[in-house]
Design brief:
This protein is mainly alpha-helical. The protein contains 1 helix and no strands.
């Protein structure tokens, strides 16, 4: 079986509008809050 090759991808480099930036930041915040919740369980 061959190894999976990964590459870095910076989402921030591909955001074009203020709406896209806001959506990305909101989603990032949701994942952060979920991570905190799971670590406290």
């Amino acid at each position: 079986m061959s190894k999976t090759k990964t590459t870095r991808y910076d989402v921030a480099e591909h955001l074009r509008t203020p709406e896209e930036i806001a959506a990305y930041l909101e989603l990032n915040n949701v994942f952060y809050l979920l991570t905190i919740r799971w670590s406290c369980s």
